[in-house]
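#struct-help
A.M.: can someone run this one for me? Single chain, 234 residues.
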Amino acid sequence: MTNLNHIVIVPDGNRRWARQRGRAPFLGHYEGAKTAEKILGAARDLKVPCLTFWGCSVANVTERSPAEVKVLFAIFGRYFKKLLTNRAVREDRVRVDFLGRWPELFPVSVQKTIRSVMKATEHHDRHRLTFLLAYDGRDEMAAAIEVIATEKHRNPKLKVTRELVKRNLWTHDLPPVDLVIRTGGEPHWSAGLMMWDVAEAQLHFTPTLWPAFTSAEFKRIVAAHGKTERRFGR
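D.P.: on it. Structure tokens below:
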């Protein structure tokens, strides 16, 4: 069990893993999907209350080759459908959500599966599993600002507070992020990932490419950061 309430995973390195083995780069996504299942199981072992998983950015589905994007959509459709009959999701009462621009960028068939999963788990209240799909933190922030600007126009006395910003984010009902784990060995941020929610987060960059990332490494990282004293600037 961990005292970290909200963990975010950025799974980087699928294509590099495949290239190192002389395989077509996008085939690494298949291995990455298998790793995701293992890590979800490890998170369950640790009883992580809230887990957010970066599935893909907007650029991943608009700027890569049609063949690779087709593979990504096929993987999403297959693995999300498995969530509908997943025993752990049912027994642990895991609410599964999907945030991002997937309603406009994903195939209708995958959209239907996503909506079915959300509908089936909408009343689950013990754990949260969130997938960021066709997600860009700058889009999320721009959308929140647009709503707030409209409210401010209607009510000039409206005070813009941190609470107001949070209420208008896609992640409005998710808690602050405690830990972000990024695999792949490149210590950088991507597309403004949850820029509001990671304000006080711990960051861990591992050189392990995502398909090679193990449950044991995940648990070691979580254990190490769970022991870290957080001062929050005090």
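A.M.: thanks! The mean pLDDT is 95.
D.P.: also worth noting: The chain has one domain: 6-136+176-225.
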